[in-house]
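FORM 7B: Structural annotation worksheet

SECTION A. Query
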Amino acid sequence: MSRSLILAAVFISSAGAAIWPPKLGQYAVKSEASVAPAGAQAEEFGFVEGERADYGAFEVTASQFKDVTGAYAASLDPSAKGSIRVGNYLVSCEGKCPKDLAGLADASLPHVSHAAVPTLESYLPSKGQLARSERYILGPTGLKTNIPEIPASAVNFDFGTEGQVARYRTPGGPVALAVFSYPLPSMARQQLPEFQNITGATAKRTGPLVVVAVGPSAASAKLLESVNYEGVVAENEKPPEKPLELKPESAGKMVLAILSLAGLLLAFCLLSGLAVGGMLRLARRFGYSAAEGSMTTLHLEGK
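SECTION B. Predicted structure
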């Protein structure tokens, strides 16, 4: 199932449903109110709905997103300062907040997703990176807001492109470094010339990633060198402790199994033939004319 269909199903199943429960741990709700999305990128992040609940000693606000990627992107936005991410939710609290708020929210909020967060952050070097400068980009609005030097036509979000950008302080001057991920390496290869045509930018492709640095050329080139795609293979099955060995007894069992299967097939054919013959004989005995059958002979001698 494509990501768009999954997101649509999540949206339909969660739309109109209350977010905060009547009781959160030992705290009973006193009032609830809907909350509008915060930030200009809420639509790109996949905002579904938000709700604020008053539990007496504290007030909590939850913003639900269609998937974990959207919630992760929203958590990096300046408007989400002070919020915590719980799966595909952003949760904030005011007042005497419970110490285990994240655990309470995880157990109480509806349709919490525990999917993995995007991994583009791991490609951004930590040395020289400005604190809280990372942003996750899911569309043209986020691109224009966070790194306007790169046009949306170069990224081509129609491919389902996602990106992450951070800003750096280097000896040569400030540099903005962005990593864009494409579903296929061929798509990244196709878009690379568009990035290379951007004035003041340096770009390269590594696997399905296109890395772009905007800033002084020497500092940009050094940052680009530190970003290289590495495919990750995850093992989710434990390999056998001993390699598979074909022993004489196992080979004999295999031959016996083959002979047994052949015998069953022969018996089935024999019984089927006897059944058909018996039915025809009974049909002729009771005068069914079609049971005699007919045969056409072609005399081809001398032809």
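SECTION C. Observations
The chain has nine helices and twelve strands. The chain has a mean pLDDT of 87.

SECTION D. Sign-off
Analyst initials: ____
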